[in-house]
Design brief:
Layout lengths: L11 E3 L6 E3 L3 E5 L3 H6 L10 E5 L4 E2 L3 E2 L8 E3 L1 E7 L15 E8 L2 E2 H10 L4 H4 L5 E2 L4 E2 L10 E6 L2 E7 L7 H11 L7 E3 L7 E2 L5 E6 L5 E5 L1
Parallel strand pairs: 3-15, 5-11, 6-18
Antiparallel strand pairs: 1-2, 3-4, 7-10, 7-16, 8-9, 8-15, 9-12, 13-14, 13-17, 17-18
């Protein structure tokens, strides 16, 4: 007899060119990490300490479909570079952070913007606008050995063939290694953690029937149909 009274599947991701899967532990999302996006959201783009919120690991979805959620009239796209960790710890040094990276993927932080805005105005947490079923479409995870150097890579998103978001990874206010080091000061990082590193300017609404294509450098594209 099992020691558990119920069975809950372990959320995991497909890995490019690998039969094994990447088990998920936590999902950290970095906010306002591109100056122009901070400006378009009405905030100061200065390099203030990063902040983060979390999505549930089972919010991640690799089906290539995004089902419009209920209780929202303004669902918006945010394209992001996603970092997967193979190890972690506390108080990781910036110069050591790369040693903990398993790989990278493209992701979308789909946001119920009207609900997020409402929560902001009330001084409440954002989860109702950020963490819901299918709210994080994600592409194939590529190991760090299978990835090109991403330090100076273009990141962009098209909707129905029209360019919506465009930027460069080097425009992040806090780079990947700095983010890892910063998070490790406040929480125990570990294998299975994902970090969504923020989005460039150009976020906007989606509707059923839209076709989204996200790309970064040499990573596998992420194609998502909105239904």
């Amino acid at each position: 007899m099992s020691e558990y009274v119920n069975h809950v599947p372990t959320p995991s991701l497909k890995i490019y060119n690998c039969t094994q899967r990447f088990a998920l532990r936590r999902v950290y999302c970095i906010g306002r990490n591109y100056a122009e996006h901070a400006l378009e959201m009405g905030h100061d783009p200065d390099r203030e300490p990063p902040f983060y919120f979390q999505k549930s690991p089972d919010n991640l979805d690799q089906t290539g479909q995004f089902v419009m959620p209920v209780k929202s009239n303004n669902v918006q796209h945010e394209v992001e570079l996603v970092v997967a960790l193979k190890s972690g710890g506390r108080n990781i040094r910036v110069e050591d952070a790369h040693q903990h990276i398993f790989g990278f993927a493209l992701g979308l932080d789909m946001t119920r913007r009207d609900l997020q805005t409402q929560m902001k105005s009330l001084g409440r947490p954002w989860e109702i606008g950020k963490s819901f079923e299918g709210s994080a479409p994600i592409g194939l995870l590529q190991t760090i050995d299978d990835c090109p150097v991403l330090d100076n890579s273009e990141i962009k998103l098209t909707v129905n063939g029209e360019l919506r978001q465009q930027g460069n990874i080097n425009q992040m206010l806090w780079n990947v290694n700095e983010i890892i080091a910063y998070l490790s000061q406040y929480t125990q990082l570990d294998s299975g953690d994902l970090i969504m590193t923020g989005t460039p300017a150009g976020v906007g609404p989606v509707v059923a029937g839209d076709q989204l294509v996200a790309s970064i450098g040499g990573l596998s594209n992420l194609e998502v149909s909105v239904t």
